[in-house]
Amino acid sequence: MGEQIDFRTGDAHGLRLTDGSVDLVIMHTLVSHVADPTIVLAEARRLLSPHGRVVVFDGDYASLTIATDAADGGAGTDAMIHRTLVANDRVMRTMPRLLADGGLELLWSRGYLVSDIGRLDFWAPMIASLRALMPKAGALGDAEANSFADAIERASETNRFFGACNFYTYTARRTD
Q1: Residue 51 domain-assigned (yes or no)
Q2: In total, how many domains does the chain have?
Q3: Helix or strand holding residue 96 (H, E)
Q4: In a domain, 72, yes or no
Q5: Model pTM?
Q6: CA angle at 34 for the pair 167 and 14, rounded to the nearest 5°
Q7: Which of 34, 152, 22, 42 is CA-nearest to residue 86?
Q8: Tens-of-pLDDT digits for all 176 residues of the chain?
């Protein structure tokens, strides 16, 4: 089986592979982070063999919410987290149109809700990464980012955490 699978990495905007040479393209939490998802989908289509498939899995980060003690319940920090983490927080909502416009036929889709209620589990790595990412993005200073993460972790320690986000998977093939 090892001879049948070849994993490659590179710039998703333009991979150095032959047209139609790939049977499967997997985009796992990619399209929300690129500047122009249409270019990345076009590259996937270019690479797909006639019987190939593309699988896109990513979050609808506009739905990402982390409850806080702020008067707005966390709406302001949600928006700040969206700006810090992703370039396209609503791209998965437009994926059926993007696939069709890009010459790809939607074959299958599924939606998922990921939530932690009470204690951090799934969201723990994201909260930890915000300590570094928020200052780099200019959203908060180092002290403020650490204070924010500390407060979220304290909420988890006292079984008061809430965080949720919708995720989606789409499978498509070339229309020709």
Answers
A1: yes
A2: 1
A3: helix 95-101
A4: yes
A5: 0.91
A6: 120
A7: 34
A8: 567 777 777 888 888 889 999 999 999 999 999 999 999 999 999 999 999 999 999 999 999 999 999 899 899 999 999 999 999 999 999 999 999 999 999 999 999 999 999 999 999 999 999 999 999 999 999 999 999 999 999 999 999 999 999 999 999 999 98
